[in-house]
From TrEMBL:
Protein origin, superkingdom: Bacteria
Gene name as annotated: steA
Keyword Flavoprotein assigned: no
UniProt feature coiled coil, ranges: none
Transmembrane segments: 333-362
Thiamin pyrophosphokinase catalytic domain residues: 192-232
Every SteA-like C-terminal domain range: 319-369
Record protein name field: Cytokinetic ring protein SteA
Keyword terms: ATP-binding, Kinase, Membrane, Nucleotide-binding, Transferase, Transmembrane, Transmembrane helix
Family matches, as SUPFAM superfamilies: Thiamin pyrophosphokinase, catalytic domain (SSF63999)
UniProt key word Translocase: no
Classification lineage: Bacteria, Bacillati, Bacillota, Bacillota incertae sedis, Caldicellulosiruptorales
């Protein structure tokens, strides 16, 4: 039997902020993605109740595979009606194939197995050709419709942070982004790039003692602490200027600039660095592979693809940086360090009677040899 207090949310990224070990997350997340899976694992969950399909087979999403590979139980596809009957703080008990809510029968449990997910996963790759075709058509359509965005024909806000001629690190909540941040901490310490966080990625940076200079996004997943600690806030609004995230910022007594344009907040962050004259743009958690761009058939990813084409060689992925960049330690510095460490040791030995006698015998032996 599994028993625990419920944490429930339609958005998994919001739920994990409140989730504590021993609690049971109840989500409504179709095709669980990698970021969501690792966020749940960080909270040491033993079971996940998903009222949507964790893996539909439409796309090779890896979230369910990751959870199951870490021995997390997934109770799957219970339906939105069940989701609406559960409240935060309720007590759920799972007894074999029955689920009880506050001691009352709720529904039967539908367990998702590794074999089932693997079967769906393999079949989903066969659909990639159609997904790719749709993505290409959508990209061309987007390029015609929003070419002004790609060409920079919209107003970027004035910022006080100096970017021209510097390296810029753009951090997004994407695949393995926390691992990538750890991998390039040496680069961040030595080069000191301008750090731009896209929304909730700012919280992950603070966990690593890295303060973002700029936070860009709709402010739906970033913490108040991060907003207080950064230098500048840029709210990404709808093209018509409506910026719901501005209310959150103003409620904290903070000020923010607004950028109104289509595309994703990740796109805005990359274009800001580019338009302000960054020498090099290093991305963490960004979308770079075919699977990233085709994920769940997201139409918004077309803009990200086109932005990366525009920025071109100025943009590098953090995983590449972590492999190419290593802190070099000179043998000269090692020698100086060892010599410095020997000086106090020799000084102590010289005033110790047994070693004074030892050194005196060595002197006598040298005199005999040199005669």
């Amino acid at each position: 039997m599994i028993k625990g207090k419920v944490k429930i949310d339609r958005r998994t990224k919001n739920l994990v902020k409140r989730l504590r070990p021993g609690e049971i997350p109840v989500i409504l997340h179709e095709d669980i993605d990698e970021v969501a899976a690792y966020s749940l694992l960080e909270k040491k969950v033993k079971v996940v109740i998903n009222c949507a399909k964790s893996f539909t087979g439409k796309f090779p999403a890896v979230g369910a595979k990751i959870l199951l590979s870490h021995d997390v139980i997934i109770i799957d596809n219970l339906g939105e009606d069940v989701f609406n009957r559960i409240r935060e703080g309720d007590i759920i008990e799972i007894k074999d194939d029955k689920i009880f809510l506050n001691s009352n029968y709720l529904c039967d449990a539908k367990y998702l197995s590794k074999e089932e997910v693997e079967s769906f996963y393999q079949k989903s790759f066969k659909k990639m050709e159609n997904l790719l075709e749709d993505f290409i058509e959508n990209t061309l359509e987007y390029a015609k419709k929003e070419k002004g965005f790609i060409l920079g024909q919209f107003e970027m806000p004035d910022i006080s942070t100096k970017i021209a001629g510097r390296h810029v690190l753009v951090v997004t909540r994407g695949s393995s982004f926390k691992k990538d941040i750890k991998a390039i901490k040496g680069y961040i310490t030595e080069v000191k790039p301008v750090v731009i966080a896209v929304d909730g990625a700012a919280d992950a940076l603070l966990e690593e003692k890295i303060r973002p200079n700029i936070i860009i996004g709709d402010m739906d997943s970033v913490s108040e602490e991060s907003l207080y600690k950064c230098d500048e806030i840029i709210v990404h609004s709808y093209p018509n200027g409506y910026a719901p995230g501005l209310k959150k910022v103003e409620a904290l007594g903070l000020t923010a600039k607004i950028v109104a344009c289509p595309g994703t907040s990740e796109d805005v962050a990359l274009l800001l660095a580019y338009e302000k004259g960054a020498e090099l743009i290093v991305s963490v958690g960004s979308h770079s592979s075919m699977l990233d761009f085709l994920e769940k058939g997201r139409k918004g990813m077309s803009s990200t693809f086109l932005v990366r084409l525009k920025i071109g060689s100025k943009l590098v992925d953090a995983r590449g940086v972590s492999k190419l960049y290593t802190e070099k330690v000179s043998f000269k510095y090692i020698g100086v360090l060892l010599f410095s460490a020997l000086i106090p040791i020799l000084a102590i030995l010289m005033v110790t009677p047994p070693f004074q006698y030892f050194f005196y015998l060595i002197q006598l032996k040298l005199r005999v040899i040199l005669r």
